[in-house]
Design brief:
mainly alpha
Length: 115
């Protein structure tokens, strides 16, 4: 990194600190309404879209995982193969795609994690 880049980064950090202090002071005076108005005025590139995350599911119990492990995959490469007999990397890939919530819970179960 060039010295000019370092200096530019340091100046940007200093300016950001000044703006942050100002925002903090104004928020103390105006409250949430100030932040709402500020958010409307900021360029879209400063507001990164939030990633959609799968809802958090509780891991299956040992018994639930045991039962689900004997369920056969209803489609795809491992059609009619018991979940316990399908490679873990394929199950993980499938869970990241579209498979039912039970697969996510199965992968989080102590039974599977201990293997």
């Amino acid at each position: 990194m060039k010295i000019a880049d370092i200096e530019k980064n340091m100046k940007a950090a200093g300016a950001a600190a000044i703006v942050a202090a100002f925002v903090d002071e104004e928020f103390e005076f105006y409250g949430d309404r100030f932040l709402e108005e500020l958010a409307l005025m900021l360029p879209k590139k400063l507001c990164k879209p939030k990633e959609k995350k799968a809802p958090l599911l509780r891991p299956m119990t040992q018994q639930e995982a045991r039962n689900f492990g004997s369920v056969t995959v209803p489609f795809g490469k491992y059609n009619n193969v018991a979940v316990d007999n399908v490679p873990m990397d394929w199950l993980q890939w499938l869970a990241d795609q579209t498979f039912v919530d039970n697969l996510r819970r199965y992968l989080e179960s102590e039974r599977v994690k201990s293997e």
